[in-house]
Sequence to fold (276 residues):
Amino acid sequence: MTAVAEPVAPPLPEPGLVTRARWSVSDTMTIARRNLLVWMRVPAYIVFTIIQPIMFVLMFRYVFGGAIPIHGTSYVEFLMPGILGQTAAFACFGTAIALAQELQKGVIDRLRSMPMSRSAVLAGRLVADTARIIVTIVIIVGIGYAVGFRFINGVIPAIGMVLLAIVFALAFCCIAAYTGLAIGDEESVQAFGLIWLFPLTFVSSAFVPIYTMPGWLQAFANNQPVTYTINAMRALAIGPASHQPLGPNLLKSLAWLIGIFVVFVPLSVRAYKRAS
Fold:
């Protein structure tokens, strides 16, 4: 008897660019949904992103506010853009800690072994971080209004300030994504985050005018991304009362943020590929 060869099915055609993009978006949103569920169920993330900035608002407004004179405006008007800038910067703690935890527990290895888009893990993290940051900023603005803050420069500049805060937070989340994946240990990531975040946020124009600092410290405070971003946010929020020109501060802030994205997005992707 002669064997009859079974017909071989022709290979399936490669999916087109549109189909692959649709799959990538779907995978990204699935990962983002997962990350948001984790965020809502882990109290430590909520403390870092919501409760801590509320404590800063109340503490600086009612404990230090009466002792810090601000020319041309009230301290609460000066304070709130600084609090939003600090909150946006500190939002990256959640990114770094979550990625370090997932790396330690092998979650990232399992996700990379699944038939899903390679970019979905990092892109989903950034989408979830964006949603988390928006919720946090809305809450902080509401707390600010409760303690006397007002957007006195109009609605459009207020929206611009919020958008700038979101972009600023995402830039710092890219730095945090790289450090979380490169270091890979939760406790070390937290310690390292304190080392670089606290000097940048506190040695800036966030809480006090820079001219009140020692001369040797003013050189650093006047030329770093947090100061430029907060000065731009303050100019958008309260206009001329901020005594800060919007154009130069906004351009320098965007230049810093674009530089951070250009440097740390590829570094984060590289760290993700090497993580194991």
About this structure: The CA atoms of residues 67 and 273 lie 50 Å apart. The chain is about 75% helix and 0% strand. The two ends are 54 Å apart (CA to CA).
